[in-house]
Amino acid sequence: MNFSKREIAKMLGDSSRLQADMVAETILDNQESFQNLVDLMLDDDGQMAMRVSRVVEICESYKPRLFEPFSRKILNRLPQCKTPGVKRNILKIYTRRDMPKDEELKGNIIELCFDWMRSPLQPVAVRVLSMMVLERIALKEQWLIPELLYSVEDLLEKENVYAIQHHGKKTAQNLRKFML
Question: For the chain, percent helix, then strand, then coil, each to nearest 5?
Answer without folding.
Answer: 80, 0, 20
